[in-house]
Amino acid sequence: MTMPPPPRHNGGPPLGQDDAGAGWRSWCWRRAHRRAWKTPPREIALRRLARAEELGMTYRDYTLGILERGRYL
């Protein structure tokens, strides 16, 4: 029996552990990561870039904040 992940853990695949479902979980997480970081339409990217510059952040940090919280900063 495995221990549940600690509080506020994202439930991602365990790295470096070999088990039967590791390949499938890893594939699912890679696919989800690729979909989350897919390049948005030009207008949205420019709006995010402008807002990130206003806040003194990089575009990637600003986008990560949106993805983590599910709302705009």
Q: Could you characterize the architecture of this molecule?
A:
The chain has 73 residues and is mostly helical. The protein has a domain at 31-69. It is 55% helix and 0% strand. The protein has 3 helices and no strands. The protein has helices spanning 22-36, 42-55, 59-69. α2 crosses α3 (59-69). The radius of gyration is 16 Å and the shape is elongated.
State the helicity in percent bands: 40-55%
Question: How large is the share of residues in beta strands?
Answer: under 5%
Distance between the termini: 40 Å
Output the structural class: mainly alpha
**Rg, please?**
16 Å
What is the general shape? elongated
Number of helices: 3
Instruction: State mean pLDDT (0 to 100 scale).
Output: 82
Low-confidence stretches: none
Short description:
With 73 residues, the protein is mostly helical.
Which descriptors would you attach to this protein?
73 residues, mainly alpha, 0% strand, 55% helix
